[in-house]
Amino acid sequence: MGTSRMTREERRADTRRRLLDAAADVFARHGYHASSVDAVAEAAGFTTGAVYSAFGSKEELFLAVVDEHLRRSVASLEAAVAPGETVAARVRVGAEHWMQLVERTPEMLLLHTEFWAYAVRDPRVRPRVAAQFAEVRAALCRLLVAGADELGLRLTMPVEEVAVGLDALADGIARQRLAQPDAVPHDLFGRLVGAFLSSVSEPRDVA
Fold it and tell me: pTM here?
Protein backbone atom coordinates (compact mmCIF):
# COMPACT_ATOMS: atom_id res chain seq x y z
CA MET A 1 0.00 0.00 0.00
CA GLY A 2 1.48 3.36 -0.99
CA THR A 3 1.78 6.26 1.41
CA SER A 4 0.27 9.60 0.50
CA ARG A 5 2.53 12.62 0.40
CA MET A 6 1.74 15.70 2.40
CA THR A 7 0.72 18.81 0.53
CA ARG A 8 2.74 22.00 0.87
CA GLU A 9 0.21 23.36 3.36
CA GLU A 10 0.30 20.16 5.37
CA ARG A 11 4.11 20.24 5.45
CA ARG A 12 4.02 23.86 6.55
CA ALA A 13 1.54 23.07 9.31
CA ASP A 14 3.62 20.09 10.42
CA THR A 15 6.77 22.21 10.55
CA ARG A 16 4.99 24.88 12.56
CA ARG A 17 3.61 22.28 14.97
CA ARG A 18 7.04 20.72 15.55
CA LEU A 19 8.66 24.11 16.04
CA LEU A 20 6.00 25.16 18.57
CA ASP A 21 6.42 21.92 20.52
CA ALA A 22 10.20 22.28 20.56
CA ALA A 23 10.02 25.97 21.49
CA ALA A 24 7.65 25.30 24.38
CA ASP A 25 10.13 22.77 25.77
CA VAL A 26 13.22 24.96 25.24
CA PHE A 27 11.60 28.07 26.70
CA ALA A 28 10.29 26.09 29.67
CA ARG A 29 13.72 24.65 30.48
CA HIS A 30 15.84 27.76 29.93
CA GLY A 31 13.53 30.78 30.14
CA TYR A 32 12.87 33.32 27.41
CA HIS A 33 16.11 35.30 27.54
CA ALA A 34 18.46 32.31 27.80
CA SER A 35 16.77 30.44 24.95
CA SER A 36 17.97 30.87 21.39
CA VAL A 37 16.43 30.32 17.99
CA ASP A 38 19.31 27.96 17.23
CA ALA A 39 18.39 25.79 20.24
CA VAL A 40 14.75 25.62 19.15
CA ALA A 41 15.72 24.72 15.59
CA GLU A 42 18.06 21.98 16.77
CA ALA A 43 15.45 20.53 19.14
CA ALA A 44 12.87 20.44 16.33
CA GLY A 45 15.27 19.01 13.77
CA PHE A 46 15.18 22.02 11.45
CA THR A 47 17.50 24.79 10.39
CA THR A 48 17.44 28.23 11.99
CA GLY A 49 16.13 29.54 8.69
CA ALA A 50 13.04 27.36 9.06
CA VAL A 51 12.25 29.03 12.38
CA TYR A 52 12.57 32.52 10.91
CA SER A 53 10.55 31.50 7.87
CA ALA A 54 7.68 30.27 10.06
CA PHE A 55 7.71 32.93 12.79
CA GLY A 56 9.99 35.82 11.86
CA SER A 57 11.67 36.32 15.23
CA LYS A 58 12.16 34.80 18.67
CA GLU A 59 9.51 37.20 20.01
CA GLU A 60 6.96 36.02 17.46
CA LEU A 61 7.79 32.40 18.20
CA PHE A 62 7.38 32.90 21.93
CA LEU A 63 4.12 34.80 21.51
CA ALA A 64 2.82 31.95 19.36
CA VAL A 65 3.71 29.46 22.11
CA VAL A 66 1.93 31.60 24.70
CA ASP A 67 -1.09 32.14 22.43
CA GLU A 68 -1.52 28.42 21.97
CA HIS A 69 -1.13 27.74 25.70
CA LEU A 70 -3.72 30.41 26.49
CA ARG A 71 -6.22 29.04 23.98
CA ARG A 72 -5.89 25.53 25.35
CA SER A 73 -6.13 26.73 28.96
CA VAL A 74 -9.21 28.87 28.27
CA ALA A 75 -10.96 26.08 26.34
CA SER A 76 -10.27 23.53 29.06
CA LEU A 77 -11.48 25.91 31.78
CA GLU A 78 -14.72 26.70 29.94
CA ALA A 79 -15.38 22.98 29.40
CA ALA A 80 -14.64 22.15 33.04
CA VAL A 81 -16.84 24.88 34.55
CA ALA A 82 -19.86 24.66 32.26
CA PRO A 83 -21.60 21.62 33.84
CA GLY A 84 -21.75 23.11 37.36
CA GLU A 85 -25.35 23.55 38.55
CA THR A 86 -24.59 26.09 41.29
CA VAL A 87 -22.21 29.00 41.78
CA ALA A 88 -20.38 27.02 44.46
CA ALA A 89 -19.93 24.05 42.13
CA ARG A 90 -18.56 26.18 39.30
CA VAL A 91 -16.23 28.05 41.62
CA ARG A 92 -14.94 24.82 43.11
CA VAL A 93 -14.31 23.19 39.73
CA GLY A 94 -12.80 26.32 38.18
CA ALA A 95 -10.49 26.97 41.11
CA GLU A 96 -9.35 23.36 41.25
CA HIS A 97 -8.74 23.37 37.50
CA TRP A 98 -6.56 26.50 37.77
CA MET A 99 -4.51 25.18 40.68
CA GLN A 100 -3.92 21.88 38.89
CA LEU A 101 -2.77 23.79 35.81
CA VAL A 102 -0.35 25.86 37.89
CA GLU A 103 1.10 22.79 39.56
CA ARG A 104 1.21 20.73 36.36
CA THR A 105 2.90 23.41 34.20
CA PRO A 106 4.55 25.92 36.56
CA GLU A 107 7.10 26.80 33.90
CA MET A 108 4.40 28.42 31.78
CA LEU A 109 3.44 30.83 34.55
CA LEU A 110 7.12 31.68 35.02
CA LEU A 111 7.51 32.27 31.29
CA HIS A 112 4.44 34.51 31.18
CA THR A 113 5.84 36.55 34.06
CA GLU A 114 9.32 36.76 32.56
CA PHE A 115 8.06 37.84 29.17
CA TRP A 116 5.54 40.27 30.68
CA ALA A 117 8.37 42.07 32.50
CA TYR A 118 10.25 42.30 29.20
CA ALA A 119 7.29 43.27 27.05
CA VAL A 120 5.83 46.07 29.17
CA ARG A 121 9.12 47.94 28.76
CA ASP A 122 8.97 47.67 24.98
CA PRO A 123 6.23 49.68 23.20
CA ARG A 124 6.54 47.40 20.16
CA VAL A 125 5.63 44.25 22.06
CA ARG A 126 3.35 45.59 24.80
CA PRO A 127 0.18 45.60 22.64
CA ARG A 128 0.58 41.88 21.93
CA VAL A 129 0.84 41.08 25.63
CA ALA A 130 -2.10 43.36 26.36
CA ALA A 131 -4.10 41.45 23.74
CA GLN A 132 -3.34 38.18 25.54
CA PHE A 133 -4.57 39.61 28.84
CA ALA A 134 -7.68 40.85 27.03
CA GLU A 135 -8.33 37.36 25.63
CA VAL A 136 -8.28 35.86 29.12
CA ARG A 137 -10.58 38.57 30.46
CA ALA A 138 -12.98 38.02 27.56
CA ALA A 139 -13.16 34.33 28.41
CA LEU A 140 -13.85 35.13 32.05
CA CYS A 141 -16.58 37.55 30.98
CA ARG A 142 -18.22 34.82 28.91
CA LEU A 143 -18.16 32.44 31.86
CA LEU A 144 -19.50 35.07 34.25
CA VAL A 145 -22.33 36.18 31.97
CA ALA A 146 -23.36 32.64 31.09
CA GLY A 147 -23.20 31.54 34.73
CA ALA A 148 -25.22 34.51 35.95
CA ASP A 149 -27.90 33.93 33.29
CA GLU A 150 -28.18 30.21 33.98
CA LEU A 151 -28.20 30.56 37.76
CA GLY A 152 -30.57 33.53 37.98
CA LEU A 153 -28.02 36.03 39.26
CA ARG A 154 -26.98 39.52 38.31
CA LEU A 155 -23.62 41.16 38.87
CA THR A 156 -23.54 44.35 40.91
CA MET A 157 -20.33 45.49 39.17
CA PRO A 158 -19.49 45.68 35.46
CA VAL A 159 -18.56 42.19 34.28
CA GLU A 160 -15.28 43.48 32.82
CA GLU A 161 -14.19 44.74 36.24
CA VAL A 162 -15.10 41.45 37.88
CA ALA A 163 -13.03 39.64 35.24
CA VAL A 164 -10.02 41.87 35.96
CA GLY A 165 -10.32 41.07 39.66
CA LEU A 166 -10.55 37.32 39.08
CA ASP A 167 -7.59 37.32 36.69
CA ALA A 168 -5.45 39.31 39.14
CA LEU A 169 -6.44 37.00 42.01
CA ALA A 170 -5.59 33.91 39.97
CA ASP A 171 -2.15 35.24 39.04
CA GLY A 172 -1.34 36.40 42.55
CA ILE A 173 -2.35 33.14 44.20
CA ALA A 174 -0.41 31.13 41.62
CA ARG A 175 2.80 33.11 42.12
CA GLN A 176 2.64 32.85 45.88
CA ARG A 177 1.83 29.14 45.67
CA LEU A 178 4.89 28.54 43.49
CA ALA A 179 7.13 30.61 45.74
CA GLN A 180 5.95 29.17 49.07
CA PRO A 181 3.51 26.25 48.73
CA ASP A 182 3.13 25.75 52.49
CA ALA A 183 1.82 29.30 52.92
CA VAL A 184 -0.96 28.91 50.33
CA PRO A 185 -3.48 26.10 50.99
CA HIS A 186 -4.58 24.30 47.84
CA ASP A 187 -8.23 25.33 48.36
CA LEU A 188 -7.51 28.99 49.22
CA PHE A 189 -8.11 30.23 45.70
CA GLY A 190 -11.54 28.62 45.57
CA ARG A 191 -12.56 30.08 48.91
CA LEU A 192 -11.42 33.55 47.90
CA VAL A 193 -13.17 33.39 44.53
CA GLY A 194 -16.37 32.26 46.23
CA ALA A 195 -16.23 35.15 48.67
CA PHE A 196 -15.45 37.61 45.89
CA LEU A 197 -18.28 36.47 43.63
CA SER A 198 -20.72 36.47 46.54
CA SER A 199 -19.84 40.10 47.19
CA VAL A 200 -20.48 41.21 43.59
CA SER A 201 -23.63 39.22 42.74
CA GLU A 202 -27.17 38.83 43.96
CA PRO A 203 -30.40 37.03 42.93
CA ARG A 204 -31.87 38.62 39.84
CA ASP A 205 -35.23 39.30 41.52
CA VAL A 206 -33.63 41.55 44.17
CA ALA A 207 -34.55 45.18 43.56
Answer: 0.82
